[in-house]
């Protein structure tokens, strides 16, 4: 509420809105009809603002109410303030509903395609006013950033004890063997673990590299056959084009669209080898944006009806 120099003089936002309408109609009578008020009530609002501001807003006559020079200057500013105030109220309401804001999301695996990419695409279409900021790194780094409140949520590969706060198991994603088009294994439809043993397996240190390395070790591949790479997944794949080496990646990397690289499903006992994603977030976080994202991620059909078995990570 605004106070002027006159004893007891004050006005509120409702009074100001009424005054602006009088200025638009240039008539107390027509403004009163529009508002569904009697002219006496409307006049009180005009007088309240005039007394509070110490200026005359209108020159009144039988033909209407003409805005004075001082009134025009004041109402021009006041109208702009009200517009910005209304916008702020709308934005605050949308923020409370989780429809605008910022989502800081960590993602461990490549998501050029696959279920993570599809889920994120659906989220951005459902909440176009939310700015999604995505960070990719190892599981340990992402969870450390989440605990330090520098991330709002993280999608990582599942493992027991991975996160003690709020979490939800999401769904599976295939592991693929990547290689150059001319590689001896490129003509196979799928690849069991033993078929990889003659070849050097290139694995990125970041992303899903640590989990893939553990799986490779569990299946008896010799350590000297592993080559850890400090590079991005797209550069690692580019390195395979003219070498008799392979890499193991999540299916999301297929969407990188590398022309000289082919991908073949990795299988174990005839079944696709799958990893499972888990969504982690801080349970005490009451940000509606995070709540909407968690809700959509849990409702999303991650497996798409797949009956393949997953391996422990």
From TrEMBL:
Instruction: Identify the GO cellular component terms for this protein.
Output: protein-DNA complex
Q: Does the keyword DNA-binding apply?
A: yes
Record GO terms (molecular function): DNA binding; DNA-binding transcription factor activity
Protein origin, superkingdom: Bacteria
Keywords attached to this entry: DNA-binding, Transcription, Transcription regulation
Task: Spell out the PROSITE patterns in the cross-references.
Answer: HTH_LYSR
**Domain HTH lysR-type stretches:** 11-68
Matches recorded under InterPro entries: LysR_HTH_N, LysR_subst-bd, WH-like_DNA-bd_sf, WH_DNA-bd_sf
Q: Which family does it belong to?
A: Belongs to the LysR transcriptional regulatory family.
State the protein's name.
Answer: LysR family transcriptional regulator
Source species of the chain: Gluconacetobacter sacchari
């Amino acid at each position: 509420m605004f106070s002027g120099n006159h004893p007891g003089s004050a006005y509120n936002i409702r009074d100001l809105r009424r005054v602006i309408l009088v200025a638009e109609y240039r008539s107390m009578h027509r403004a009163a009809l529009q508002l569904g008020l009697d002219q006496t009530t409307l006049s009180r609002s005009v007088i309240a603002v005039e007394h509070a501001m110490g200026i005359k807003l209108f020159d009144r006559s039988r033909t209407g109410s003409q805005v004075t020079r001082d009134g025009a200057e004041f109402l021009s500013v006041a109208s702009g303030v009200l517009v910005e105030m209304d916008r702020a109220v709308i934005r605050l309401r949308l923020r409370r509903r989780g429809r605008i804001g910022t989502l800081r999301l960590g993602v461990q695996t490549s998501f050029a395609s696959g279920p993570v990419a599809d889920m994120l695409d659906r989220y951005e279409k459902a909440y176009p006013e939310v700015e999604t900021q995505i960070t990719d790194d190892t599981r340990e780094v992402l969870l450390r950033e989440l605990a330090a409140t520098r991330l709002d949520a993280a999608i990582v590969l599942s493992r027991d004890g991975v996160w003690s706060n709020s979490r939800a198991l999401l769904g599976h994603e295939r592991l693929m063997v990547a290689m150059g088009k001319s590689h001896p294994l490129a003509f196979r439809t799928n690849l069991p673990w033993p078929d990889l043993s003659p070849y050097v397996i290139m694995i990125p240190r970041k992303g899903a590299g640590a989990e893939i390395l553990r799986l490779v070790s569990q299946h008896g591949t010799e350590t000297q056959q592993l080559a850890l790479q400090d590079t991005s997944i797209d550069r690692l794949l580019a390195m395979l084009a003219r070498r008799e080496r392979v890499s193991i990646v999540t299916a999301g990397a297929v969407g990188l669209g590398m022309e000289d690289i082919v991908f073949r499903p990795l299988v174990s006992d005839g079944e696709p080898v799958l990893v499972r994603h888990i969504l982690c977030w801080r349970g005490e976080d009451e940000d509606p944006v995070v709540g909407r994202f968690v809700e959509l991620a849990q409702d999303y059909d991650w497996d798409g009806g797949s009956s393949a078995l997953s391996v422990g990570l």
